[in-house]
Write a structure and sequence with these properties.
The structure is a single chain. By secondary structure, the chain is of the alpha+beta class. It has a single domain, classed as Carbon-nitrogen hydrolase (Nitrilase/N-carbamoyl-D-aminoacid amidohydrolase), CATH 3.60.110. The protein contains five helices and 17 strands. Strands 5-4-3-2-1-17 form a six-stranded mixed sheet. A six-stranded mixed sheet has the order 8-9-10-12-15-16, with helices on one face. A three-stranded antiparallel sheet has the order 11-14-13. Helix 1 runs parallel beside helix 2 and helix 3 runs parallel beside helix 4.
C-alpha cells in the first residue's frame, strides 16, 4: 500500500517596513516605495507598512485642515503600490487615510497582490480618543467587519493599531482563515510618561499581540513607525517606539526592529507551524460557541 506524499512545506517571506515620517507626503510615499522594494529584494513576498505612513501622525490635534490629507481607496497610493506589487510579484498591506464621501473618512488598510492589483480593504473598527490620539475627530468606525484576504501566497488578516488590544478582533479575523494577522501601527510614548511608564506600556503592547498569536495559533505582524513627531504648539509630541515585530503561533518573537531607527526586516515564516500549533493546543476545537452569547453585550450586569 503506497503512502501519500507529504505536502511540500509552505514558506513565506514577510517584510516589515518601520519608517520615520516627515511633513512631505510625496517624500513619505517615495520612501515607503523604496523600502518596500528593498524588502522584496531581500526575499519578502508580503510587505506591511506602518499606519498612516503618508504623513506625520496628524491625530495629535483636532485640525480640519488635516482632512485634505485623505484620498479615495482605491486611489493614488494604492495604485502606486499596486504597480510596484505587480513589478516585484509581491503583496503589500497599505495604510491610507480614506476619504469615502464628503465629511466621511476612515482609517483604512488596503491589500494589493501581485498582478491582481487591489484586492480589498479593511476599515479600522476600534477608534481611540486619548490625549494626542484624537482619532474619533477624523475617523468613522469601520463598517466592513473583520476580514481575511486570500492572496496568492497566504490568507492575510488585516487590522489596524488600536484593534490590536481586542482579542475579539483577532479571533474573528482568524476564524475567517487568516494565517497571519497584520497590524499597521502608530504608537509611542508621551515624553513626560516615558521614564515612569514607558517600559510597562511597551511590554503590554507586545504581550497582548503575542497572546493573540498563541490563542489563535497564527502569526502576528506588528509594524510601527519610529522617531519623534512634534505636536501642535504647546504640546509635547509623541516619541514613536518602533520595535516592529513578528510573533510565531507559539508566541515567540521571531524578529524585532530597534526603537529609534528605521528598519526593513524580512523573516521567512514556516506556515506549517500553524497546523502543528493548533493540533497541540486545540483552542479552536475546544471553544464553547454555545456559551458565548453574552460577548455581544456591552457589559453583562444581569
Amino acid at each position: 500500500m503506497s503512502m501519500a506524499a507529504s505536502p511540500a512545506p509552505r514558506r513565506l517571506g514577510v517584510g516589515l517596513v518601520q519608517m520615520q515620517m516627515s511633513e512631505d507626503g510625496a517624500a513619505n510615499r517615495d520612501k515607503a516605495l523604496r523600502m518596500t522594494r528593498e524588502a522584496a529584494g531581500r526575499g519578502a513576498e508580503v510587505v506591511c507598512l506602518p499606519e498612516l505612513f503618508g504623513s506625520r501622525y496628524f491625530c495629535q490635534a483636532e485640525d480640519a485642515d488635516c482632512f485634505a490629507l485623505a484620498e479615495s481607496v482605491p486611489g493614488p497610493t494604492t495604485e502606486a503600490f499596486a504597480e510596484l506589487a505587480a513589478e516585484l510579484r509581491i503583496a503589500v498591506v497599505v495604510s491610507v487615510f480614506e476619504r469615502r464621501a464628503a465629511g466621511l473618512y476612515h482609517n483604512t488598510a488596503a491589500v494589493v497582490d501581485r498582478e491582481r492589483g487591489y484586492v480589498g480593504k479593511y476599515r479600522k473598527m476600534h477608534i481611540p480618543d486619548d490625549p494626542h490620539y484624537y482619532e474619533k475627530y477624523y475617523f468613522t468606525p469601520g463598517d466592513l467587519g473583520f476580514r481575511s484576504f486570500a492572496t496568492e501566497k497566504a490568507n492575510l488578516g488585516v487590522l489596524v493599531c488600536w484593534d490590536q488590544w481586542y482579542p475579539e478582533a483577532a479571533r474573528l479575523t482568524a476564524l475567517q482563515g487568516a494565517e497571519i494577522l497584520f497590524y499597521p501601527t502608530a504608537i509611542g510614548w508621551h515624553p513626560a510618561e516615558k521614564a515612569g511608564l514607558g517600559d510597562a506600556q511597551h511590554e503590554a503592547w507586545e504581550l497582548t499581540q503575542r497572546a493573540h498569536a498563541v490563542a489563535n495559533g497564527c502569526f502576528v505582524v506588528a509594524v510601527n513607525r519610529t522617531g519623534f513627531e512634534p505636536g501642535p504648539p504647546g504640546a509635547e509630541g509623541i516619541e514613536f517606539w518602533g520595535r516592529s515585530f513578528i510573533a510565531a503561533p507559539d508566541g515567540s518573537v521571531l524578529c524585532r526592529a530597534p526603537t529609534d531607527s528605521e528598519a526593513v526586516l524580512v523573516e521567512t515564516l514556516e506556515l506549517g507551524r500553524i497546523e502543528e500549533q493548533r493540533q497541540g493546543w486545540p483552542f479552536l476545537r475546544d471553544r464553547r460557541i454555545d456559551a458565548y452569547g453574552a460577548m455581544s453585550n456591552r457589559f453583562d450586569d444581569s
